[in-house]
Amino acid sequence: MTNPTTPVRVRYAPSPTGIPHIGNIRTALFCWVLAQQTEGQFVIRIEDTDRSRYDADAEKAIFESLDWLGLGWDEGPGKGGPHEPYVQSERKQIYIEAAHRLVESGHAYFDDTTPEQLHALRERQRAAKQPPRYDGRGRHRSPEEIEESCKAGLPITIRLKVPEFGSVSFVDAIRGKITFELKELDDFVILKSDKMPTYHLAHILDDHAMGITHVIRGDEWISSTPRHLLIHQALGIEPPEYVHVPLILGKDKAKLSKRHGATSALEYRDLGFLSDAVFNFICLLGWSPGDDTEVMKREEIVKRFSIDRINDSPATFDAEKLEWMNGVYIRNMDEDTLMGHLLPFMERPESEGGLPDSVTRPIDREYLKRLLPLVHERLKLLTEGTETLDFFFANNVSPAAEDLLGRKMDIEMTERALATALELCKTATSFEPEHLETEYRALAEQIEMKPGQLFSPIRVATTGKPFAPPLFDTMSAIGQDRCIERIENALSVLRSAAPASTD
Ligand code: GLU
Hints:
Low-confidence stretches: none
Number of helices: 20
Shape: elongated
CATH superfamily of the largest domain: HUPs
Helix content: 40-55%
Mean pLDDT: 96
Bound molecules: glutamic acid
């Protein structure tokens, strides 16, 4: 299907039963993109009719995910619109009335089969190696019998009468024509005994009432679509265009799940991913612009998105690619913007991955700005700001003795390296990186060590880590006094480790 040229009305209709995962959010994102492209409307509707599975935290997470990804909606909770309310539990009466109308028109019927009877039926079918299905017994119940069951307090449902023969078809925008034989379907519930509609009935009534033109949803719903087509027929309304998007698999080809790591947009936010990078990455799960372009700004995605380039085979979730993409977005950012993103991560409590609690908040913005060029190119995640920069902010560092020993260096040699480095540090007339580099290179020559042999223990002494940004820029940013202190401390660490390691 080529892209609609008139404004679409699309909806994201999550059930607040769990934290929305990437696959679920992808539907929201495709809807949003299509609405932007056609200057249509993006509607949010909360499908909370299964009250036993309602989860307030999940609902909160849905809105938080949309906000974080910048998927603003034109109509829906918190925004209002001409089709309020946008929460299904508040639309109960609409569904009850429609279900009763379907009974009156002969398309549906009341059923008083009890859960126990249904269970016994399924058991018998299982024993006879038949597929479990409802046998339509309610079709033969008289209004009086139903009335009696109702008075006796038995649960009453409304089921749709599914024709016994024939077929229904629809044209899926991605997979083309799909046909289902009706003999495979049983009479299914449209209104539950608690007077709540099933998803099947509720979403159709709402999509119709809200003027939804395109239903974009996961392809796990394809098998339910014949039911939806039958409800449309019974109601005498036209179905929307269906766009069933493919499943998302992990790299091992198994359905994406917790086993593969983070699966919700909010987890990625907390892991230090940028909303723009996640947006870009999710768009490419099942869709591609048709060439090799991967890194695309929102506007470009909105311009290039096309339904006919959505794949019909499953998408693969490649977490490494997401990390790479995040790195690209970070590199493309100017330093002020990067700083704005890093600060909340660095200023979190230490227990949540922030800088040591001993570092006073708010941290020195000017100082951070000076440090950013040293790490900017290498950052892939916003959380890495803390681990790559913590030693600049900390009062002191605690290098491990084994890290202080450079390659092919023993304690004695390392001690000599550090002791001479300390002297030079104390007498340095300038702490500019270029000056330090000249001086320390000359020192290496003088004490007959390779530059790397001298620099490695200094790096560990001043930063506490074997890997850090370029040494002389780092020393310069740490400053002379703290460098002196840290090298002195490293020497005492080394000396106290000496007897044990020479045993
Ligand atoms: N409430 C359904 C879900 O969360 C919506 C499916 C649809 O988009 O029609 O999966």
